[in-house]
Amino acid sequence: MRLSCSAILLLSCHGLQETAGFQLGRPYYRHYHQKVHRRLLASVMEDTLIEEEQMTRYIAEINRFQDLAVSTYEQQHKELNNIAAALESIRTGEPITDWEETVIPVATPTRQENGWTQPRAETRAPAWPPVAQQPVYEPPPPPPPVTAIPPPPPPPTISAVPPPPPPPPVSAVPPPVPPPPLQVDSTTIPTAMADLTGVTFQLEELEDRESCSTELTLETDNTVTLGDTDGPLFSQATGTWSVYHSKEEEEQEELLFDMSITRTFDAGQKSTDMGEFTFSVDRMYLGDVTKVGDRLAVTGTIHLVDELLGDEKIGFFNMIDNREESDEDKQFLYGRRVQTG
């Protein structure tokens, strides 16, 4: 509950007027009125709010003043000064510095003890102790300073680990020894690599049950030129070829054929999200060269080159000389196709 100072002032004026006017008379009341209410004038003008606890203390002072029975003018004057100081302390919240001690004798009834009457005089202290006599809160002493904990010693320095000795120098790998010169039987296989150079073949491929035929020429610089095809149309094709001699366990000499071809295809459309793009297909052809009469032929397998999985056989191929086939050549080549297919 909060009351304004103006409400407290009206209450105090009414109570003090009755008490002071009755006990002390009008002259002393005017003196008290001027002293007390002059101090409260600022609070009245500002209409400061007073807490319920302060209001209770204020009313208690007024009630105590009304109950005072003083014997002399001096004692009552001190009480009035104390009341004024208490009200001022309530308003400002500061401790009372001019509190005056008063001892007020109070007449009390006698008591009958053992047939005689013993008067009793009691001394009553003020009902509400002044603020100055109340114990003042003192903050606890500061804690003793905490000694700083010394920092931990730095870790011991770790000696630098010597670098590992350099690896021994790797001796240069000697270049591969070139294969021995071809010694070919002219009755079964070509007598030299020149027999294949510049020859145009018909390359027939069988891969994933799909077959196609492409015109192919083995150039003198060991490159491959692709011509017309009835398979997927490519935009660009490059390749290389070579032959080498091998000897099997039965001491039968053969001329082996090795060829790699890379085809580039165009795909996609500009109007689609993917647009146009290109991709390449690499194939490796491994086979052996044979000759029937004056005709050359190469038969073997097609391999997919994969860096992770390695080479994988995925089909078969035949390379047939484009010159007119004789009946003997047709019979031989047909047998080779059936055998490899």
Describe the structure.
One of its GO terms (biological process) is actin filament polymerization. The chain has about 350 residues and is an alpha+beta fold. It has two domains: about 5-110 and about 120-135, no CATH class; about 195-340, Porin. Helix content is about 25%, strand content about 30%. It has helices spanning about 5-25, 25-45, 50-65, 75-90, 325-340; strands at about 5, 50, 105, 110-115, 115-120, 120-125, 200-205, 210-220, 225-230, 235-245, 255-270, 275-290, 295-305, 310-320. The strands form four sheets. The chain has an eight-stranded antiparallel beta sheet. Strands 1-2 form a two-stranded antiparallel ribbon.
Topology readout:
Layout: E1 3-4, H1 5-23, H2 26-46, E2 49-50, H3 52-67, H4 73-92, E3 104-107, E4 111-113, E5 116-118, E6 121-124, E7 200-207, E8 210-218, E9 224-229, E10 236-247, E11 253-268, E12 276-292, E13 295-304, E14 312-321, H5 327-340
Antiparallel strand pairs: 1-2, 3-6, 4-5, 7-8, 7-14, 8-9, 10-11, 11-12, 12-13, 13-14
What number of domains?
2
Count of discrete alpha- or pi-helical segments spanning 4 or more residues: 5
Low-confidence regions? 13-26, 104-114, 181-190, 336-341
**pLDDT averaged residue by residue:** 69
Order of helices and strands: EHHEHHEEEEEEEEEEEEH
CATH topology of the largest domain: Porin
Structural class: alpha+beta
Counting DSSP E segments of at least 2 residues, the number of strands comes to 14
Q: What's the architecture of the largest domain in CATH terms?
A: Beta Barrel
CATH class of the largest domain reads Mainly Beta
Distance between the termini: 111 Å
Query: What is the CA-atom radius of gyration, in angstroms?
Result: 64 Å
What order do the strands of the largest sheet run in, or round the barrel if closed?
Answer: 9-8-7-14-13-12-11-10
Question: What would the principal axes of the Cα set say about the shape?
Answer: elongated
Signal peptide: 1-21
Region (Disordered): 131-175
GO cellular component, one term: actin filament
Biased composition (Pro residues): 137-175
